[in-house]
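REVIEWER CHECKLIST
Item 1: Sequence provided? yes
Item 2: Single chain? yes
Item 3: Sequence as submitted:
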Amino acid sequence: MIMVDSCGWLEFLSDGPLAQAYERYFERLEELVTPTIVLYEVYKKIKRERGEEDALRVAAQMHRTLLAQLTPSIALYAADLSMIHRLPMADAIVYATALTEQCQVVTSDQHFAGLAGVVFVAKGK
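Item 4: Structure as written out by the authors:
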């Protein structure tokens, strides 16, 4: 299973410079795991920049993935990971969810660089 972080979703949806590198991870949405905090971040950004209709369309697409809820145990795990790896809250929740669900995180977010179980999509690749 694979988990694409918010920056990957946004890059792919906006046809950004790394969209092609992310494309292969979106071929089978039903095999993607999406933490609810990623749903929140992507919906919010799309709604702010492109409007509610586009945001709802993207949210519907994200609902085709396996949505992973933020449970109390993941929240505590995320807090520990945040302190260990100096991760911001949302990134710690994504990483804790990925480790709990035994997924690789696919991202371009520098906060994840060098962490175990992360596929880092860098610019120019």
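Item 5: Key structural point noted by reviewer: Residues 2-120 form a domain with the Rossmann fold fold (CATH 3.40.50.1010).
Item 6: Recommendation: ____
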